[in-house]
Please model this.
Amino acid sequence: MSSVFTEITQLSSKDCFHIVERHKTEFTYPLHRHREFELNFIEHGAGVRRIVGDSVEEIGDFELVLVGSEGLEHVWEQGNCKSADIREITIQFSKDIFNENLLSKNQFVSIKKMLDKAEHGLAFPLSAIMKVYSALDTLAVEKEKFVQFLKFLYILYELSMADGVKVLASSSFANTSRNKESRRVQKVKQYINDHYSEPLMLNDLADIAGMSPVAFSRFFRIRTNRTLSDYIADIRLGFAARLLVDTTKNISEICYECGFNNLSNFNRTFKNKRGSTPREFREMYKKHKVTV
Model:
């Protein structure tokens, strides 16, 4: 499999962020990754296909996504978009503009949490986009640099307070850490992460947490907003997606290596959760990768 293009952004060491506004009719940039955080806004882009890690979705007329992991591949491609005037505003910034002491202050707690979650990629709902639209709309043309930064800070804050934010890439695909979760949840997730290729029984996982199976199922759902079975399936799918992208192993091998007990179940689950079959997912990534 070919490598993913690593972008060297134009962010200067003397600037808090780099912003570019474009009007275009099509997306041509390849699948890529970079060290910096990226807040990407798209207007009049209904039908564009967004790929962030193992998340593949067709976007609506308005799109706002924050990507914040060095190893997280992402791209926006033309898909079914027919718009003659797609507006895109891309803001790239380093987390270093907020030192840890500042992020630990009460006024920045929500921003810190959002930046941590952005390791997976975050898609903001329309209500959040509309709340920051006027600030985004004028950000690129603001001549006073300090005022521009204050607007940028306001955007981050409002987004960090938004409800209905969607996490995009699975943790097993994005290879993100779990050290910010409760100890019980962390221990169980680490066990699942280490043993995803094996049968995972509720009783065994409950024992790890030191709880009864019924109490643990409820505890896990409350702490993660997901059922245990859904979480296990997504972890296995994330590892499978990574193998589809990074190796030439056949799909049957990947199926059993990732803990699925038969190929038809693997194909059906992958299609339901990712919107494409494993073969289609692999071909899509191959099409967008470039050799570097």
In short: The domain at 173-288 is CATH 1.10.10.60 (Arc Repressor Mutant, subunit A). The radius of gyration is 20 Å. The first helix runs from residue 100 to 103.
